[in-house]
Model the fold of this input.
Amino acid sequence: MPHPTLPAVRLSLVAIAALALGCSVAMASESAGLVKPMATKHAQGKGAVHEAQGAVAPGAGGAATQQPGAHATPAGPDPMDVLRERLAQKLGAAKAPQAKSPYVMQVTSKAEAPDAHGPAQPAAQATHVAPKPKAAAPDRTADLVARLRAEKAAAGHKPDGHALHWGYDGQGGPEAWARLNPEFATCGSGQRQSPIDIRGGIRVDLDPIQFDYRPTAFRVIDNGHTVQVNVESGNAIDVQGRRYDLVQFHFHRPSEERIDGRQFDMVAHLVHKDTQGRLAVVAVLLDRGSAHAVVQQVWNNLPLEKGQELPARLPIDLNQLLPENRRYYTYMGSLTTPPCSEGVLWMVMQQPVPISPEQIGVFAHLYPMNARPIQSASGRLIKQSN
Done:
């Protein structure tokens, strides 16, 4: 491959040669212009004009005379030709191969200039060896797609790519919760799951639950699994030496808990949390009977769209939701919905609270069944108030 700066060098040499040649021609022209008038004057002064018969040369003793029949002495080399030749040698120039005029030169680099001992050897050109084409990798797209589909199916995704949402029946029902999402694994592997059938509780003098409830603002939302009521801060319970703040309460139909095998029409779960994130749930069983004012207040503020949270105009007093008899059952369990986290303190009120068939029908219209099946007690200790 030619050197990248060679064209620039060539152009520079040509420019120098042209400049030097131009200067030489100009000097020669000027010299010729000066010599011609002087020769004319000299010829006029002598009265002799020499033409093409010969050259006039001064003799040793005086004027020169032309010998008859003698030939003119050949003139020496033209100084301009000598100058051009020397300039060409300096610049490494040579006559163009096909140029008829001696004044046409071809400028070449020293690497290309002809050697006195032989023709110049052409510069070695770098050869580019094309890399051998790599063998095409096998197309494993189909295998990758199949593997991803299998992984999604194992994680609870439908073949069409849409994630299965957990629910209470069908492919997203309780039996499949643990497979829908790795975060739900405890739903299948946990050893202290809820709800349970409360049987054989040990009767002891349990500390009463201290309910610190007061009228508070609330908002109702249909979250797609149940009707949930989010409450403002200021409501709490004190139990077993800890204080838990009420976060929200919601409903299930039928009741998830059973007492000695008996299931109730509905249940309300009041979810509390302490400052360290531990959960405590108070379960209020709802049994068919007369209308309940607190339940009706919630139904009155049901939003028209799922996922929409509707603030209520009037505050709610959850003391009215509690039974008169505050005795309860207690055990350690889990959330009854995914992710089924364990370590939840459960307190199930022993006395159910009445709710009218019409109020049950309102909820049944939205959620005919949203209760997780009974889980194994696994030998857990259950205590109940005397």
User: Anything to note?
Assistant: Residues 170-385 form a domain with the Carbonic Anhydrase II fold (CATH 3.10.200.10). Residues 192 and 301 are 35 Å apart (CA to CA). Helices lie at 6-46, 79-91, 141-154, 177-180, 186-189, 293-300, 357-366. Confidence is low (pLDDT under 50) at residues 1-15, 23-73, 107-120, 152-162.
